[in-house]
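Students often ask why we bother encoding 3D structure as a string. The short answer is that it lets us treat folding as translation between two languages. Here is a chain of 153 residues written in the first language.
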Amino acid sequence: MRIFVDSGILVEYQKGNNVDFYEELILREEITLFVNQVVISEFLYYFIALSANKSPMSVKEAGQIANSFGERNPLEMLPGFIHLGHNNEIAEKGFEFMKKYNLLPNDALILASCVNNQIKRLATFDSDFNIPCEELGIKIIQKIDDLKSDGLK
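And here it is in the second language, the structure alphabet:
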């Protein structure tokens, strides 16, 4: 099973929310997980905010970005994830999705990555994906039961 993972899944796990769901995703051998640069950028941005307990811009202005990570490497939260690249087709499709579904750029690029790579499942807590995913035949995964209803035991 191939699942694209939105940054909200990673951020909520970092906050201590939906821990079981994230762990279920990464521990299942029959699941292949995907992200793109948008997800990594969003996750690192929120990681700085969560770690420093202040806005990422404040952390940057104080010259403290490295300190906000300490000894932690947040990318270690992505064990075995496949990192998808970006190309002109994804950019064009993303722009099309922005106009068609009233999506912000990052969400449109995430959706375009799914479509371009034939990934039919999106793990996300973002309701902005509901209508476009339904129209494009992409199943939204938000909890462990969604995995079970999709054939996993």
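Translate back mentally: The longest strand covers residues 32-36. Keep this in mind for the problem set.
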